[in-house]
Every structure is written in structure tokens, then in C-alpha cells.
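DM from R.C. (forwarded with permission)

"hey, sorry to bug you on a friday — could you get me a structure for this? deadline for the figure draft is monday and I only need the backbone to look sensible"
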Amino acid sequence: MSSKILIIGACGQIGTELTIKLREIYGVSNVIASDINTRNLDLVNSGPFEIIDAKNYNAIHDCCVQNNVKTIYLMAALLSATGEKYPMEAWDLNMNSLFHVLNLAKDNVIDRIFWPSSIAVFGPTTPIDNTPQHTICEPTTVYGITKQVGERWCEYYWEKYGVDVRSIRYPGIISHKAMPGGGTTDYAVEIYHEAVKKASYNCFLAEDTELPMVFMEDAIRATVHIMQAPSDAIEIRSAYNLAAISFTPKDIYHSIKKHIPDFTINYNPDFRQSIADSWPSSIDDSKAREDWNWKHEFDLDQMTAEMLKHLKVKYNS
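My reply, with the result:
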């Protein structure tokens, strides 16, 4: 039996599109999608799918053994805004799921892991401009804490047990295919949907809140490339900084107005503003570009054109 790939949390924002891409590359039958439920029927019906709770070690173990899974992409998590509402649930899911897959690799059940980190590992004491790869990490959210601790455990398992784990600190991710999953950067997805549906948007961040972002196609490309890179090219086993474009709600508003001239926006910052204020405005990702040739392709206006094109079809507008 050929070795398989398992994606845990495949119905989420990133997992949905990652599953599609990996099936294009490796073949539908070789990529098993899994999630705790079957809410994404398009994904469930598109290839091998199993219901797996990321907190259930035995379920993950049995799936790997029965299907000869050798690579796991662990995409299940409670994100920043949702995690603040349910802190213990966020800690439980985000940490225990990571330990499960790290231990499967330690015990030689699987060979390779992708686990996503986030710019949420940074905090108000982190340099906000061109944030370096190695810097102060004092996160202020439960989500950020789980990612910071997770990074340390990933590096520990690599150093102590030789576990081939790879990670990216994702910035905000923008996609037209999957709806937002409860993150602080969700405004940058919602704004396009509301622009197409209503030509207006009520933004939960202030107009000048600059945050690093990446278009989903670039994020998926980065994920695939880091996993395809030879092991000796991966010098950082905690998580690589990743950046593409940085912009503010005001910037994205003006980009949309080029296509929808009557689009309007209001700014009503809520609790997510303090989270955003603790994160960098731009990221130094030169190490990822050096080690495994990361390059982004979409700038803000290119991303806006792509988002609006697909959403106008979605909403028949």
C-alpha cells in the first residue's frame, strides 16, 4: 500500500483548500481528509474522508496504521477570537492534538508533520515593524500562547527525537472559498463578502490597523513548498516567519472602491482591536525565502480583483 497523507481539520478555512491542492498533486486516493463533523459536504464527497476528533489519539493512530499514513497536516485549532471566548477548550484542542501527532512521529508511526503556527505568537513587546524571525514572543491571547508553546515543543521533538516537523507562522489569510473561522484578521475576508452583497461593511478594527496578510493561494503554496523541501533545508524547527502583504482596513477599502465605487465602510472597533494592536504590522520572512525559496505572488490589488471576481459569481451579483 502506498503511503498516504492525513489532513486533520480539513473542513476549516485553510484545510479545505489545502486538501484540494494536495489531491491535485498526490492524487485523490492518497489524501485522506478528516474533521470532527461533515459540515463541508463538497469536501466530504470529493475523496476519502473520516470523522476524527483531533483530541482523540486512538482515532488518529488507528487511521494512520490502517491507511499507511506517513504525513499529517494538523490544521485543527480554535483561533484567536474564538479562543478568547473558550480559553480552556482552545488550550485542550490546540495543545493535545499537537502532542498526539508529535508522539506518533516519535514512535515512528508517521514520518513528517506540518503544524501551523501564527503571528499570534507575537505580543505588544515584539518589534512591530519588519518583525524578525527570532524576537520577543509574549502573546496576549490563549491562541497565541498555544502557538508559542507549540513552537517550543516542535523544536524540542526535533532536537530530542528527530521528529521531522515543519511550521509556518501564518499571517492573516484571505480566501473566497471558505468562510472565516473566528480569527482577528477575519475582517479582511468579511469585507469582500459584504462589499459584493451590500456595498457596505461595518469593520471591527480601526481604519489604520496595519496587519500582515497573505492570499490563500500563496499560503497554500508556502505550505506545499515547505513540506516538499529536503529536510536539511529546514533550519528552523519552531516556525518560520511568513509574509506577503501588509495593509490596513482603509487600504483594502480603497482597493475595493476601484471595482465597487459606491462601497462604504464604518469603523466600530471591538474586543478584537486589542488583539490586533498586539500583533506586528509587517514581518521579516527572509529566512523562509532563503531556506526553501518562499515567494508570494499576490499584492493587494491583485488579491482584491480575484476575491471580487469569485464572490460576484457566488452571490450572482
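R.C.: lifesaver. The mean pLDDT is 95.
me: no worries. DSSP finds twelve helices and 14 strands in the chain.
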